[in-house]
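Table 4 source record.
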Amino acid sequence: MRHAITLVFSMLLGLSTAASAQVSATHLYMSPWKTPWTYEGVRGSDHWAELDPDYAACGGKAQSPIDIHDAQVADLPPLRFEYHGAPIDYVTNNGAAIRVDYEAPGSGDFLIVGDTRYQLVQFHFHRPSEETIDGKRFALVAHLMHRSSDGKVAGVAVLLQVGNANPLIEKLRAHMPRHEGEQKVPGLGINPADLLPLKKGYYTYEGSQTAPPCHEGVKWFVLKTPVQVSAAQVKALARIYPHDVRRVQPLNGRIVQQTRGD
């Protein structure tokens, strides 16, 4: 499985063309380390667009993450998650985040929005949350990244707050590599549905990857209801990456919508 998926951070998604704003299979698995970058300092997020021509999109007008406020209530389609429990082979530390990859193609896990069916490609964590709600950050965020058969990309952001232990993160906790690389976990069964809240109300907007190359054309769904994680689970991730977060980006006239109710 791992030979098909190279190390990549955050959304791991790229535009197939600027006009179509769709993500190509090449960018979906491309390594971000062509030119090193960081979150702070001279190679930090404020300078990503200057580091490499391939990172020019980081200076674009439809970037992520954002602060969500004054979202417009709209009649939006429900999110349908067809996630299943299955064994994974590896837990990855890609040098910037802890991530779990799924085979592409071949995963049996899907997000369905209206008439579009997106396959789950990977999920990863940021500490604290990259997205903010009315300026508030959460202890963690899980980003579940999906791609449709025609190259469209959807990211689902699940906000995580301190409370009871999360069963999926607890299974991963002992297998998270402290340094860049992969930890084999043959037969470790997880279900990405364990990262989801019962209520599936959401905010949505058009955005981008939250790390280089920052390609735009990503449809984001930020779930309104947080999921609980224990303080020990937050600490375990913080020991590896205490602050892998890009600052919030200006909306530049983009509209953020939300479902009616939670």
